[in-house]
Design goal:
Elements lengths: L1 E5 L2 H4 L7 H15 L6 E6 L11 E6 L3 H4 L8 E7 L5 H13 L7 E3 L4 E2 L4 H11 L1 H8 L17 H20 L7 E6 L5 H17 L7 E7 L2 H10 L7 E5 L5 H5 L6 E7 L9 E5 L2 E12 H10 L7 H11 L1 H7 L7 H14 L1 E8 L7 E3 L2 E2 L4 H5 L5 E3 L2 H10 L3 E11 L1 E2 L13 E3 L2 E3 L2 E2 H10 L2 E7 L9 E7 L2
Helix pairs in contact: 2-4, 7-8, 11-14, 12-13, 13-14, 16-17
C-alpha cells in the first residue's frame, strides 16, 4: 500500500494543522478488512481548500490496468486509489464510509450517473458552468448577490488604479517609440476578454484619458477599447460602467475559447490583450503519472441516490428522470425549461431552484485509464500531447491539469496581437509542477461556476513554440493574493 499526503507544510504542522494520523489509521483498517491485495491500493489524502467542490470526504477511484501488467496478473487486475479530504474527513466515520464504498465495487452503486465516463473537459459540469454565465441574471436574482461576491475578498484581484496606470504608461512609451519611426497606426486597439462588471475597463479608460490629457499625446482620440465576454448579462453591466466613454468602447459577445471567430478583423492589430480570471473557468482534462505510467483521468457527473430522490420529488419526477431533466436544463435554460415542461417547473423560479439544487448536489466520480500514446492526445486544436512529455516526465509521479480550454484560448488569442503587442493575464497559475503535490488545485465551485488552477508551464511551452516569451510574476497590487500575472510578447 502506498500512502501519499498532498498538503502544504502549514496544513500538516503547527497549531492549526490537521491531525492526519487518526484519519489514515481509520482508512488502513477499512482497506485491510475489505481488500485482499494491499499492494494494489494507494491512499491519496488532499487538503481541499474549496469549501464547495465535487468530492465527498472519501472517494474511491478505479485504476485500470496496463495491458502489460494485466497479462501477468490473475483475475481482476484493477487497482484502487482511495481519495480522502483531510479537511472534511472524520476518523470516527471514515472507516465505515470507506468500507461501504469498497463493498459497492462488486455491487450496486449508491449514485445516479448523469453521463457516461469521459474526459473531464467534456463533462456535464461544464454545461452547468456555461449555463451560469448565460443565465447569470436569474442566478443573481435567486441568490440576492452578485457573482463577484463569490470571489476571494469579494472582488477581482485585477481591479486597481495603480496597476492600470503602470500598464498605460508602458503603452504610451511603446507608442511614442513607434510614432518617432512613423510606424504607429492611426487606430490603437486594446482588447479585454472577460470584462466582469466593467469596473476594470472603467478604471483603465478613466486613467487613460487623464494621463493622455496630462501628457498631450492625443492617443485617447485614437483609442478603440473592445470588451468581449461570454455572458450577455455581464456585458450589459460593463457597458453601463463605461457609458461615459461611448465613442471609444465596443462590446462583443464572444467565446473565450475561440476569440478569432468574432475578432478576426483584429488580427495583428491589438497592442494590448487584457484577460482576468478567465482561464481558470475553462474546461480541462487531468492526467496522472503513477509508477512511471501515464493515465487519463476520466470522470462522470453523478448525484448521490438520497440527493437524487429529494431532487426528483421536488419537481414531481422519478430519480431516473433526472439525467434527461438536467440535460434539457443545460440545453434550454431555466426560462424555456419552464415553458416546455410546466408539469415539472410551473414557473421560471421553480426551474432556477431546480438548477441551483442540482448544482449543489453535483458530484464527480473519477477513474484512471491508461494513456498509452501521449503523442496522439490533443491538448487543443493543432497542439499535440508531445508538449506535455517534458513537463510530466521530469517531475515524478504527479496528477496535473492539462488546461485544454486555457491552452485553446491562449493559442487562438496570440494572432490578434500587433507585432509589438502584449498579452497580460491575471489568474491562478501553477508555475512549478510540484505545486500539484502540496495542494489541491481544483476543480472547485465558485457560486454556480467551476474553477481550476491553470497549468502555466504548458502555456509557456505553447507560447515559446509560437515565438513568444511568456513570463509570470506575482500580482503586485494586492498582498497575499494567489493570482499571478502572465505576460506574453513576441520575441521578434
Amino acid at each position: 500500500m502506498l500512502i501519499e499526503l498532498r498538503a502544504s507544510d502549514d496544513r500538516l504542522r503547527g497549531p492549526k494543522a490537521v491531525d492526519a494520523a487518526p484519519i489514515l489509521t481509520s482508512a488502513y483498517r477499512a482497506i485491510a478488512d475489505s481488500l485482499p491485495d494491499l499492494s494494489r491500493v494507494r491512499v491519496v489524502a488532499d487538503y481541499i481548500q474549496y469549501r464547495q467542490n465535487f468530492r465527498d470526504a472519501v472517494e474511491l477511484r478505479r485504476v485500470e490496468p496496463w495491458a502489460i501488467d494485466s497479462a501477468t496478473l490473475d483475475g481482476d487486475a484493477r487497482s484502487w486509489e482511495v481519495a480522502i479530504d483531510l479537511r472534511r474527513a472524520k476518523p470516527d466515520l471514515l472507516e465505515a464510509t470507506l468500507k461501504d464504498a469498497l463493498d459497492e465495487t462488486n455491487g450496486t452503486s449508491s449514485r445516479l450517473p448523469l453521463e457516461q465516463w469521459g474526459h473531464g473537459s467534456r463533462s456535464v459540469i461544464w454545461g452547468f458552468n456555461g449555463l451560469y454565465w448565460k443565465a447569470l441574471s436569474l442566478w443573481e436574482q435567486a441568490t440576492g448577490k452578485s457573482y463577484e461576491s463569490a470571489l476571494p475578498g469579494g472582488e477581482s484581484d485585477a481591479r486597481n488604479v495603480q496597476a492600470a496606470r503602470e500598464l498605460i504608461l508602458k503603452l504610451f512609451e511603446l507608442w511614442d517609440n513607434l510614432s518617432t519611426r512613423r510606424a504607429l497606426p492611426e487606430e490603437l486597439y486594446v482588447l479585454e476578454i472577460g470584462v466582469g462588471n466593467g469596473n476594470q475597463a472603467a478604471v483603465f479608460l478613466d486613467e487613460f484619458r487623464r494621463l493622455d490629457r496630462e501628457k498631450g499625446h492625443g492617443y485617447y482620440r485614437r483609442l478603440h477599447y473592445l470588451m468581449g465576454d461570454y455572458s450577455p448579462h455581464v456585458l450589459d453591466l460593463a457597458r453601463k460602467a463605461v457609458a461615459h466613454h461611448p465613442e471609444h468602447v465596443s462590446s462583443l459577445v464572444l467565446d473565450a475559447l475561440r476569440p478569432t471567430e468574432t475578432l478576426g478583423f483584429l488580427r495583428y492589430k491589438a497592442f494590448l490583450v487584457y484577460i482576468s480570471n478567465v482561464y481558470d473557468n475553462l474546461p480541462t482534462d487531468e492526467i496522472v503519472r503513477i509508477g512511471g505510467h501515464l493515465f487519463q483521468v476520466e470522470t462522470r457527473a453523478v448525484f448521490d441516490r438520497s440527493a437524487a430522490e429529494s431532487l426528483a420529488t421536488s419537481v414531481h419526477a422519478k430519480p431516473d428522470d433526472l439525467p434527461e431533466l438536467v440535460a434539457r436544463l443545460l440545453r434550454l435554460g431555466p426560462e424555456l425549461l419552464a415553458e416546455v415542461l410546466p408539469e415539472h417547473f410551473p414557473t421560471v423560479t421553480d426551474a432556477v431552484t431546480f438548477w441551483r439544487s442540482a448544482w449543489e448536489a453535483l458530484r464527480l466520480e473519477e477513474r484512471y485509464v491508461p494513456l498509452i500514446e501521449l503523442d496522439t492526445y490533443e491538448i487543443a486544436p493543432e497542439i499535440g500531447g508531445e508538449l506535455l512529455r517534458p513537463i510530466v516526465e521530469a517531475n515524478g509521479d504527479v496528477r496535473m491539469h492539462v488546461s485544454n480550454g486555457a491552452a485553446t484560448s491562449f493559442a487562438d488569442t496570440l494572432p490578434l496581437l500587433h507585432p509589438h503587442g502584449v498579452l497580460q493575464c491575471h489568474d491562478l497559475f501553477v508555475t512549478d509542477i510540484h505545486q500539484y503535490v502540496d495542494g489541491f488545485r481544483g476543480p472547485g465551485k465558485y457560486d454556480g461556476s467551476v474553477v481550476n488552477w491553470v497549468n502555466g508551464r504548458l502555456l509557456a511551452a505553447i507560447g515559446n513554440r509560437r515565438g513568444f516569451d511568456v513570463s509570470f510574476a506575482s500580482f503586485a497590487h494586492r498582498t497575499g493574493a494567489n493570482v499571478l500575472t502572465m505576460t506574453a510578447r513576441s520575441r521578434d
